Write the structure tokens for this entry.
Amino acid sequence: MAKLHVLTSDGTETILNGDVDTSVLEIMQDAGNSDLMALCGGCCSCATCHVYVDEQWLSAVGAVSEDEGDLLDSSDHKKNNSRLACQVKMTDALDGLRVMIAPED
Ligand code: FES
């Protein structure tokens, strides 16, 4: 199990427990968090699971794939710490990861 901190734009923080090898999106959905539309169901084809990774965790979450990067480029709210929640898999090293939900496009 690994802890995932989820912040909404109004500053509300929720701490979730998720299994390693589970995506950030799946952990949020399993907890009943519906703040992300995730229209494609985690297939990396919609960009509606956009989150910002806390800067201190950026290197730990790894690199953005080409497909993920292309989708993020389509967002008006893209930042250097943007990721798609369906493409970030929890690991033991990510225990305590903090993400903020990005505004909808
Ligand atoms: S849920 Fe569609 S890209 Fe992540």
Observations:
- Residues 2-101 form a domain with the Ubiquitin-like (UB roll) fold (CATH 3.10.20.30).
- The mean pLDDT is 96.
